[in-house]
Design goal:
199 residues; Gyrase A, domain 2; 2 domains; three-stranded antiparallel beta sheet; 6 helices
């Protein structure tokens, strides 16, 4: 077995410290900087900042379904089916926008948790109003940078090589970088390592 190695991956997507010991590949000790409890429900603008046609706001955590029910004043839509709904302020009941709502019950979601997306008009005022409405819900907080990926890693939805591939894909500027990062995000590098491990 290989001797103990300490690998430090420092991404703008997320900062991850990994301590890899001479253990089977399924056993991994790791710790995250600014580690936070997954008991909270997090939200963030997952599309780009600035004016755009559509903005995507992602929510993940145990109260994700509550975000849909309380902000749309309606029941949960069918899982993984887009539904047009009015989004309202949870205190004033003012209509903030009309947008598409998608519901992803865990564990069949990116993070492995209950998750949902609000696809709203991309004006800064609309996005700000929806984020403010979410901030008024008890148990909700803004996501830290890379926290959705962090939760996916904790849930076993991504391994370390896939996390690295995702970070590279986000920062890819050339076609070659895009292809390489996408293959790694799809697990090709992990499969190669598994092959080496069996030799």
């Amino acid at each position: 077995m290989a001797c103990a190695k300490l690998c430090l991956f420092n991404y703008s997507l997320m900062q991850l410290k990994v301590l890899r010991l001479s253990l089977p590949s399924t056993q991994l000790l790791f710790s995250f900087r600014n580690n936070s409890s997954s008991a909270s429900t997090i939200y963030a603008l997952s599309s780009g900042h600035g004016k755009c046609g559509v903005a995507v706001i992602r929510i993940s955590g145990p109260k994700a379904s509550e975000a849909i029910v309380r902000i749309t004043r309606n029941s949960l839509p069918q899982p993984r089916h887009a539904m047009l709904r009015r989004l309202k302020d949870t205190v004033t009941n003012e209509t903030l926008d009309k947008g598409l709502i998608l519901w992803f019950p865990g564990p069949k979601s990116f993070t492995g948790e209950d998750s949902c997306e609000f696809q709203v008009h991309g004006g800064p005022a609309v996005v700000s109003a929806v984020l403010t409405a979410l901030s008024k819900l008890p148990g909700f907080r803004p996501a830290e940078p890379g926290e959705f990926t962090k939760r996916a890693f904790h849930a076993g939805k991504l391994d370390l090589t896939e996390v690295e591939g995702l970070a590279d894909l986000i920062h890819a500027e050339t076609e070659a970088q895009r292809k390489q990062a996408f293959l790694q995000m799809e697990g090709n590098l992990r499969q190669l390592y598994d092959t080496w491990r069996q030799i």
